[in-house]
Amino acid sequence: MTDHAWQAGAFPAADDQAVIAAVKGCFDEVYRRDFSDDMLVNHALPVEVRAFRRSDGWCVFLLLTPWMMARIFLPERDPGLALPAGWSAAERAAAPFVVIGPLLDFPLLGTVQKAHLNYLPQLGHFLLQPLVQSMERFNSADEVFAAWNEVIKTRDRVM
Length: 159
Prior knowledge:
- This protein is an alpha+beta fold.
- The protein has one domain (about 10-159): Yope Regulator, Chain: A, CATH 3.30.1460.40.
- It contains 3 helices and 6 strands.
- It has helices spanning about 15-35, 90-95, 140-159, and strands at about 50-55, 60-65, 70-75, 105-110, 110-120, 125-130.
- A 6-stranded antiparallel β-sheet has the order 1-2-3-6-5-4.
- The longest helix is centred in the first third of the chain and has 20 residues, at about 15-35.
- It is globular.
- The model has no long low-confidence stretch (mean pLDDT about 90).
């Protein structure tokens, strides 16, 4: 691990709708640049943000893209987590986009969470928990979120 500080984008300080619009714009660009010709993604699905909230210094939300659905943790400030080698803002800005970066542990509301580090110049560093990665069976965003809601209901019923 290196001691490089996290770079937060300018958006977490903005109002919620501005953060949502910025995230959507960034991932629309990732789709155009990196996935628009990829046969393994579901081109019928949009980039969409749902369930946005702020919690314990993070903007937390569900992000749907044509290639995955994930829970995103976008820090409002430097969370004080050490960055792995090769993951400073300068190093990542010069590197190709990766869907899932290194796994990190981080505290949230008194529990330890696990999520993958990621970086986009417009958003800064953020954490990502992949939820759905096989998108081909879905015809719409609502179908993806309905399927995820069923997973949550099953988990709650069993646990």
